[in-house]
Amino acid sequence: MSDVMDAFEAFSSVLTDNFHKKKVNVEFFCGECCKKAVKGKLEHIDRHVIILDGDEKDIKVITFGDKGPIDIEFVEKIIIPIKNICSVEIPSRDDKRED
Length: 99
Prior knowledge:
By secondary structure, the chain is an alpha+beta fold. The radius of gyration is 14 Å and the shape is globular. The model has no long low-confidence stretch (mean pLDDT 89). It has 1 helix and 7 strands; from the N terminus they run H-E-E-E-E-E-E-E.
């Protein structure tokens, strides 16, 4: 097995063990853009994609430019290719800021 496949297997395993069914923030690339999906429930993980569900509240998707956020949209679900993911975070429970 190649090092790339080992990395994907390790990433998928960590997501499954520690992040599955939890609210997460996911930073990812979409073409030349950097985006961040905020507080979506991690519903599905496989070797190719993850699926986030709004779980009764829309997911905020922020598009970033050179100087910060340039667009915000709200979605019910989002499919993100694993190869495009930069990071997956579990938001702080103490974070009282508005979404």
